[in-house]
Design brief:
Blueprint: H1 17-25, H2 29-32, H3 37-57, H4 59-88, H5 97-111, H6 120-131, H7 138-146, H8 164-175, H9 183-219, H10 226-251, H11 266-311, H12 318-342, H13 348-354, H14 359-413
Helix pairs in contact: 4-11, 5-9, 5-11, 6-8, 9-10, 9-11, 11-12, 12-14
Length: 414
């Protein structure tokens, strides 16, 4: 149950945000692999700065789009849950989805149950059945051969999962203190406390896995290519359950496969639980997105106030004032964009609180200053063009005078 859908408070977060950054930076690989370390670091730094700038500039649009997408998904999940409930013939009032989620979680917890600690006497029986050593005393060997154990490769017993060299060493250390007289009672305790619970846990895990594949199989379309994969895995885990049940019935003749006493199978429970949890996480995501929108507006409102205070300082020279005005323009644009997109999503009181700033006047003021600068530059360009025109006229007059001199010189020669 490590999926984000089963963790309260996570919303619809993917948990893979860093992978998006790495995917964006991967386009630089063909260039940076030929660069020196200092150039490579500078290139990657610039790419990260571009990524951050783009992310900051489009933050309001990203929050708005995600809110709309999650809201659409929430409506689809509600319809899916209603259709599943109707298909299973369940009453909406009597259906306790919280209890279904707890049942699925309890099933997963039972599958993670650990076995009790194995004694050295019991370890001798397990290790002998696993490695079949030849250098054992005759009386001990005859006694161990007479004690039957089932096939244990299907279950998880920690001492049998060690490497063969380690198992041989443990057997040599444990066989020295093995009590042959109490071997039968040790065997009975081993079967009761270790082997039977191990088979029960294995069957429970396989049944839980079967419910997962059944749930995924029900979600995909009939024409989907995933159906073949899911059917194959489902067939494999079903065969494993049958084999484990067969071995367990040899140990305990009273064992019978588990039959569902309720109207819901494990697959149906998991299907309902997953749909309900997705719906719950979507509702959480809408709340988190509204909080992010409020934080967005609060941040830019406070930033604009701080920039205004710095602009009103007496020691604000022209260069610093120009930079502050550029920053204030960016802040006002971000704030105006956020107010325009969030006005129908968050409470009107919050919008009115942040809308008290006269952002349009400030932006117009900054644009007017830009227009003044442009007019000044245009005036300079006009003066420069006029000077060039005067120079061209003077050059033409000089050329005319030179032509007249040449004519007079030719006339004198004649």
């Amino acid at each position: 149950m490590w999926d984000g859908e089963w963790t309260e408070g996570t919303g619809r977060s993917t948990g893979e945000e860093c992978e998006q950054v790495f995917s964006y930076l991967s386009r630089c690989s063909n260039t940076t692999k030929y660069q020196r370390p200092e150039n490579r670091e500078e290139t990657l730094t610039e790419m990260m700065m571009i990524w951050n700038k783009r992310k900051i500039s489009c933050l309001a649009e990203a929050l708005f789009k995600k809110f709309k997408r999650v809201k659409i998904d929430l409506g689809m999940l509600r319809n899916e849950l209603r259709e599943t409930r109707i298909k299973l013939g369940l009453d909406e009032v009597a259906l306790d989805l919280h209890q279904i989620v707890k049942d699925v979680q309890n099933d997963a917890i039972v599958g993670r149950r650990s076995l009790p600690k194995i004694s050295r006497q019991q370890a001798v029986l397990l290790l002998y059945n696993s490695i079949k050593p030849s250098n054992v005393q005759v009386n001990i060997k005859e006694k161990l051969d007479s004690l039957w154990l089932p096939e244990l490769t299907l279950v998880h017993i920690p001492v049998l999962k060690k490497k063969i060299e380690r198992r041989e060493t443990l057997f040599k250390d444990s066989i020295e203190c093995f009590d042959v007289a109490n071997a039968t009672s040790t065997h009975d305790l081993l079967m009761k406390d270790i082997i039977v619970p191990a088979f029960q846990i294995a069957i429970h895990k396989a049944s839980f896995e079967k419910a997962i594949w059944n749930t995924r199989l029900k979600k995909v379309a009939d024409s989907s290519k995933h159906r073949f994969v899911y059917r194959k895995k489902l067939s494999k885990v079903t065969d494993k359950i049958n084999l484990l049940s067969k071995e367990l019935s040899k140990i305990d003749s009273s064992y019978k496969p588990v039959e569902f006493q309720s109207t819901l199978s494990d697959t149906d429970k998991r299907l309902l639980a997953e749909t309900y949890l997705k719906m719950t996480r979507s509702e959480e995501e809408l709340v988190l997105l509204k909080e992010d929108m409020e934080s967005y507006l609060t941040f830019y409102t406070r930033t604009s106030i701080n920039l205004k205070k710095k602009l009103n300082e007496e020691n604000c020279y022209d260069g610093r004032r120009s930079l502050l005005l550029q920053g204030l323009d960016f802040v006002y644009r971000q704030l105006s964009n956020g107010l325009m997109l969030f006005c129908h999503l968050i409470s009107p009181e919050i919008i009115a609180e942040h809308n008290s700033l006269d952002t349009d006047i400030a932006i117009q003021k900054y644009n007017d200053e830009d227009d003044d600068d442009d007019e000044y530059e245009n005036d300079e360009d006009d003066e420069y063009e006029n000077d060039e025109d005067d120079d061209d006229e003077n050059d033409e007059d000089d050329d005319d005078e030179n032509d007249e001199d040449d004519d007079e010189y030719e006339y004198e020669d004649e």
